[in-house]
Design goal:
Elements: E1 14-18, E2 25-26, E3 29-30, H1 34-38, H2 40-48, E4 52-56, H3 67-70, H4 74-84, E5 89-91, H5 97-104, E6 111-114, H6 132-140, E7 144-147, H7 158-164, E8 169-171, H8 173-187, E9 193-197, H9 206-212, E10 218-221, H10 226-232, H11 247-256, E11 261-262, E12 266-270, E13 277-281, E14 290-294, H12 296-307, E15 311-315, H13 328-338, E16 343-346, H14 350-357, E17 366-367, H15 371-378, H16 384-387
Parallel strand pairs: 1-4, 1-7, 4-6, 5-6, 7-8, 9-10, 9-15, 10-11, 15-16, 16-17
Antiparallel strand pairs: 2-3, 12-13, 12-14
This protein binds adenosine monophosphate.
Length: 392
């Protein structure tokens, strides 16, 4: 078991918390502050316990000097201050005297946010490449390190693995909650257990399918990835998304698990993304049809199977949900699941955005905050940002 923030005496200590403040920003405004809100529990706990709180996060990618202008965490410091109802000291640098003096002048219960950790990526990817010296330097600024950024836990960066390797470390409440929910579903799901997979490519979901196929009762496949499976079965899928390099994997899975893998029977198709839409059965597609959402019969078929299940894990949208006319499948299954008492875990990334944006933020057992990280956990991989944390 990993140490958690509750295993430390934080009073008067300089506590570095790696949070995930990687929020979408457009025209200088935060579009969605869910990630900031998700980190409040850990931050408030540290404040209540009398810590000197030092927050670190990345924001976007920094490849060019001018990327710094649009990826400063200053705007996040302002929003955090509103949410905490408390002053947040923002330091617009990631190293040096200004930062060190500000940290040394902190009082118990003060909160400081340092500038975007990825500003250190400009000269040789020091943050993203987990530069040894940078990890050591950042660790020297604090007494205790708490990792609460689940969305980057599958990466080995200076601001997670680097610092944790050089300080006593624990996980925060957000990561604790993610691990508990995701591990429970992998190791001890209440059967029958269905996995819903969607999204663009089969390739990205091969690891999850391999890890969960023997642990679940059904894998329901929608989204772009369904059409590589259907093509493998001999259907003409027209101009739908095809992942040629995964065809032999699909064939193998269909041969071994034909009763477990549930595929669409009909789809919403169009000749082009913004063209007219038609509902077609699997055997009715023309060569120039693109299948962009599951059809009504498939929605009913999926609901029928889910109805018999107690646990559902969902990763990947069932159609090109960014356009309203291809979002029906994803919306209807969300709506259906939101009205049941089943254990429903929504993976991070696009599926989480769909669930939140379509109004189901509070309707499920758990919505993961990490796309890549939740996928890697479901693949059975070890996440370096968590693995590095001290054991109890
Ligand atoms: P992923 O990151 O692999 O989960 O893929 C998510 C993306 O897959 C989203 O941008 C969806 O719009 C896209 N997607 C879902 N269904 C389809 C489809 N039938 N055809 C093309 N793209 C799709």
């Amino acid at each position: 078991m990993k140490k958690t923030i509750e295993d430390f005496d934080l009073s008067g200590k300089k506590v570095i918390i790696r949070v995930d403040f990687n929020v979408p920003i457009k025209d200088g405004k935060i579009q969605d502050d869910n990630r900031i809100i998700a980190s409040l529990k850990t931050i408030n706990y540290a404040i209540d316990k009398g810590a000197k709180v030092i927050l670190m996060s990345h924001l976007g990618r920094i490849k060019l000097e001018e990327d710094k202008n649009t990826n400063s965490l200053k705007i996040v410091a302002d929003r955090l201050s509103e949410l905490l109802n408390k002053k947040v000291i923002f330091i617009n640098t990631t190293r040096g005297n200004l930062l060190e003096d500000a940290i040394n002048n902190l009082n118990s219960k003060d909160v400081l946010l340092m500038e975007n950790t990825r500003f250190e990526d400009l000269n040789g990817k020091l943050e993203s490449g987990n530069d040894n010296d940078l990890g050591k330097y950042w660790a020297s600024l604090g007494d205790i390190f708490i990792n609460d950024a689940f969305a980057t836990a599958h990466r080995s960066h200076a601001s997670n693995v680097g610092i944790a390797s050089n300080l006593p470390s624990g996980i925060g409440f957000l990561i604790q909650n993610e691990i508990e929910n995701l591990n429970k579903i992998i190791n001890n799901p209440k059967r029958p257990f269905a996995v819903i997979l969607g999204g663009a490519k089969v390739k990205d979901k091969i690891g999850v399918i391999k890890n969960l196929i023997n642990k679940c009762d059904y894998i329901l496949i929608g989204g772009g990835m369904a059409y590589t499976f259907l093509k493998t079965l001999g259907f003409n899928v027209g101009a739908s998304l095809i992942d040629d390099e995964s065809k032999s994997f699909c064939l193998d899975m269909l041969n071994k698990y034909k009763d477990k893998i549930i595929l669409p029977v009909d789809s919403i198709v169009s000749k082009e993304l913004d063209g007219d839409i038609t509902l077609k059965n699997n055997n009715e597609l023309d060569n120039d049809d693109i299948a962009l959402d599951i059809g009504d019969k498939t929605i009913d078929k999926f609901k029928g199977i889910l109805n018999n299940c107690n646990t559902i894990m969902w990763n990947g949208p069932l159609g090109y949900f960014e356009l309203d006319k291809y979002s029906k499948g994803t919306k209807e299954i969300l709506e259906y699941l939101s009205k049941t008492n089943k254990e429903v875990i929504i993976g991070g990334g696009d599926t989480a955005s769909a669930a939140i944006n379509f109004g189901y933020k509070d309707s499920f057992t758990h919505i993961s905050t990490g796309g890549g990280a939740s996928l890697e956990l479901l693949e059975g991989k070890v996440l370096p940002g968590i693995d590095v944390i001290d054991e109890k």
